[in-house]
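Researcher: Please predict.
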Amino acid sequence: MPGDRVFVDTNAIIYAYDISAGYKHEAAREIIADLWDSGSGVLSTQVLQEFFVSVTQKMPAPISMELAKGIVTDFLKWDVVINDGESILNAIEIHKKYKYSFWDSLIIEAAIKGGCALLLSEDFSAGQRVNGVEIRNPFERK
């Protein structure tokens, strides 16, 4: 994947900080470390917002708001796609065509807008391509 931009959905980042996530925790830590090293990671404002809420309120062992804020601050060094009006309209079209939820469609749209070749998420149909973006579940056991 060298040189390819990779969009990371919220679950992959959450698992990297959720020690109760078993094998997904280790896999996510490796993915995030590789993306830091390659500089090819892409996120969206939506992903960072969902991450903050999940790790401070929804994980079995939530982390402090200050630690979460520090992690978000670090991730702001990646390319961050800002969802604007055009993104919302494009997500509606993806939602209509592919039948994903609107919020999942907005994630896909952010990956497209970010110029990503790959979207890593466990929430979509692995192997599917949407407007040139390949969706892959990095936690799928083969």
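Model: The chain has one domain: 6-136.
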